[in-house]
Every structure is written in C-alpha cells, then in structure tokens.
Design brief:
This protein is an alpha/beta fold and about 450 residues long. It folds into 2 domains: about 210 residues, Rossmann fold (3-Layer(aba) Sandwich), CATH 3.40.50; about 140 residues, Gcn5-related N-acetyltransferase (GNAT) (Aminopeptidase). It is built from 11 helices and 19 strands. Strands 13-14-15-16-17-19-18 form a 7-stranded mixed β-sheet, covered by helices on one side. Helix 3 packs across helix 5. The N and C termini lie far apart (about 65 Å).
C-alpha cells in the first residue's frame, strides 16, 4: 500500500458579499481555506490491473489521483481540426491503434476517418479514452504486447444471449518494471448510463484479455460502473467522515483505505461480478435499416431479398444482422449480408453474439452458412472461435475479377477491392428458435 496525503490551499478575497455569505451561513472567514485528504492505495508493484477512485464532487478524487499517479493522469487535449481520428492517435502501429479503438467500443471504420468535432458525445468519450490508453502504452513501450486469446462463454436462451464473465487470466509482466498505466479523470461523466456501463464492460474485457497492454484507473463520481468495470480495488472517497453539516475552513479527512481484491492477477475476488447483458433477438422489417446503415463500414445499401434481425438491449435497438440466400452449384446455402452494431453498444460482443445466433438459426435448415468479412476484430474473433471454420484466408479480392454481377441481382453483396476472409459457421444449430422465428416450418 502507498499512503497519500494532499493539502489544498485556496486564498479567499475579502469583500462585502463574502462577509454577507459568511454571516448568513455562519461561516468563519479566513484568509486561506485549507483542506487535507489522506488515502492509501495499492502500490504500482502490486498485482492489479484495474482500479477505481470514486466519490462525490469535491471529495478529493482528482487530487488523490494526481498525487498518486502524476503524469499518468490523462487530461483532455485539443484535437486537430479537420483531421481524421485515426491520424491523431500517435505514432504507434496501425494495428495497435485500431485494436485499442475497437477495445473501447469504437469499432466503426467509417467513424475513424471523421474529425473529432463531428462525433457524438459518446464517440468523443471513447476516442478520449483510447488516446489515454495509447498514450500510456506508447510512453512505456509496450505497444507491441501480444494479446491473449479472448475466451468467452455464452448461454443461449430462447430470446436472450448473455455473454458471461471473461475467464482468461492475463499474463504476468514480461519485465521487472511496472506495466504502463493510464488514469482517466471524469470517467463516463459526459455519456448516458447505458454507454457508460457497456463501455466499462468492453474496457474491462480488453484489459483482462491483454488486448490493451496497460493498467487503468478510473476516477469517477458514478458508482454504477463499478460492477461493469470489475476493478481489482476501489477507493471510495465518501464515508462517515465526510462533512455534511456546518462548513469549516479546515477539514482533516481520516485515512481512507482502498479495498484491494484478493487473488492477484488471476482475477479471483474482483469487485463484484459483471451483470449479464440480456439481448432480445427478433425478426425485423427492412424499414429499420436506416437506423444502422450509416454505421456500417461498407455501402449502406441493403439487398431487397435480405432477411433481417435486430438485437435489443433494454428495449433499445443495438445491433442488426441481415442474411441472403447463397446460390451455389455444389453447396447452396446462406450468406451473411450485413452485420452492424450501433456505437453506444460496441465492444461487449453484442454484434458477434447476434451474428452467431442468426447463423445457428439458418444451419438448422440443413444448408451451410457462410460469412465474408474484412473487419479486423471480426476476423480475429472467428479465428479463435470453435463456432467458425475459415475456408478462405484473408486476401485482397481483385476489383477486376470476372463476375456475373452485371447479369444478377447480387450487386449489393460484392466484396471486391477489400482484404477479406471467408468463414463457415460450424457451431450448433437452433431448430426450435428457427421454427419460432419463421426460418423453417
């Protein structure tokens, strides 16, 4: 444990109105207001990955974080006007940058090439978070750390998919020096609580799996993200010692001890279990596609023969998946046409879960189900998943390859000119759900 003591001094300008307020509320007028905060937090050489400093405004969170972690405390900096987000995240390799953007739930390539100023508040928050994490990785030189395989178990119910707690144990540091560290102040303060919770789950997943090779400390006034972030320790700056009555010029706060979960890096005993993410999946009409089309990394067009499905979280549409028949002289079957997850719900596996759920419906018809994708995160997941078999390695499809595109109605499904990989779904089939959703009789 490391003991931290912070003394704050604020000069008070004496004036008539200051004297009025002092008289109205019985405040002693002093030339300088002083406040002291004391706390104990786990040392950097202890085994932990994620920490949280939480408490109401004015409780000393930022002061303690700045005293404990110094330059690792990230402060928002201006973004270059008019430049693409992907050009403003340092000199790290492009794979490291895109992996970090995806890990924090900002996995829309179309949005990566936009300037910061045109993004929504939720997207801006995730960009700031990615920049803080990349700054920590880049400074400490761990940008090329190899992530572990991301293992995830799912329980598939009739109408919901609940990704469960990530069980992979992170690797210990490869060197004797402490791993890189990022400390983010005002964490989730500018986004709605759905974005805050799902974004916290995505970040925790990325750090625990090794996709982001850094430690992370969230400084926040929001208690709802703790279960979703699953920190190894929590320092709560509120408590019975907090003055709630008469304001005094000097407050000596007793030592607050951060509760460090037992079990080290194995993750046993983290701060609570992450809540499940119930996803309701239903058939959808093509009319819902405009809600999703601008967030898809390919053309916004949707084939007129597509069968559509939507995943909803807390009655809010979160992800979309469309399927087409796949005519083939030897193995006719089905083909994934469009899968997209809205920015507020990215990073926790909703799009992947929907894609695999829909695939399990269509293989119940007795025909194979294929998917071609160029998204790096989707390719990486499927390479490590027992539910998919790669039948074509990632490669560039020529724009000038001969095709019957001009004589068929499949023009909206073309993937030429992109680096894509082909997969076939080989997981279990869901006959009952396929009948219930009208896929088969």
């Amino acid at each position: 444990m490391t003991s931290i003591e912070v003394q704050l001094h604020c000069p008070i300008h004496d004036s008539f109105r200051v004297r009025q307020i002092a008289g109205m509320f019985d405040l002693p007028v002093e030339p300088v207001l002083r406040e002291t905060f004391r706390a104990e937090i786990p040392a950097l050489d202890e085994q932990w990955q994620i920490g949280v400093i939480v408490g109401p405004s004015g409780s000393g969170k930022t002061s303690i974080a700045r005293a404990a972690f110094g330059d690792a405390l990230y402060g928002p900096q201006p973004w270059p006007a008019g430049r693409a987000i992907i050009d403003c995240l340092g000199d790290l390799p492009i794979k490291q940058i895109t992996r970090t953007l995806t890990a924090v739930g900002f996995s829309s390539p179309r949005a990566w090439i936009k300037p910061f100023e045109v993004l929504s508040n939720g997207e801006k928050f995730r960009c700031e978070l990615a920049r803080a994490l990349l700054r920590g990785v880049g400074v400490r030189g761990h940008g090329n750390a190899r992530p572990e395989r991301d293992t995830e178990t799912r329980r598939l119910g009739d109408t919901e998919i609940m990704p469960s707690h990530i069980s992979a144990s992170p690797r210990p540091p490869v060197s004797a020096s402490p791993p890189p560290l990022a400390v983010f102040d005002e964490y989730t303060s500018v986004v709605d609580r759905t974005v805050a919770r799902l974004g916290s789950a995505a970040l925790s997943k990325a750090i625990r799996s090794g996709a982001i090779a850094t430690r992370f400390v969230a400084v926040t006034c929001h208690y709802d993200i703790i279960r979703w972030l699953q920190p190894d320790w929590v320092l709560d700056m509120s408590g019975p010692s907090l003055s709630r009555g008469r304001v005094r010029p000097v407050r000596l706060a007793p030592v607050r001890l951060a509760s460090l979960a037992q079990g080290g890096q194995g993750g046993q005993g983290r701060q609570g279990k992450r809540p499940p993410i119930p996803i309701a999946i239903s058939r959808a009409d093509r009319a819902i596609w405009p809600l999703f089309e601008r967030h898809h990394y390919l053309s916004g067009t949707l084939h007129r023969s597509a069968q559509c499905f939507v995943a909803s979280f807390e009655n809010r549409p979160a992800a979309f998946c469309a399927v087409l028949p796949f005519p083939h002289p030897i193995r006719p079957g089905w083909r994934e046409h469009r899968t997209v997850c809205l920015p507020d719900f990215q990073g926790v596996g909703i799009g992947t879960a929907l894609s695999e759920f829909v695939a399990s419906l269509f293989v119940a018809t007795g025909k194979p189900y294929f998917s071609t994708t160029s998204h790096p995160a989707m390719i990486a997941h499927r390479l490590n998943s027992p539910l998919w078999k790669m039948h074509r390695k990632p490669r560039m499809v020529s724009r000038h390859a001969p095709s019957s595109r001009s004589t068929t109605s499949m023009s909206d499904t073309c993937s030429r000119g992109r680096n894509t990989a082909g997969f076939e779904y080989v997981g279990p089939e869901r006959t009952t759900d396929a009948q219930r959703l009208g896929i088969m009789k």
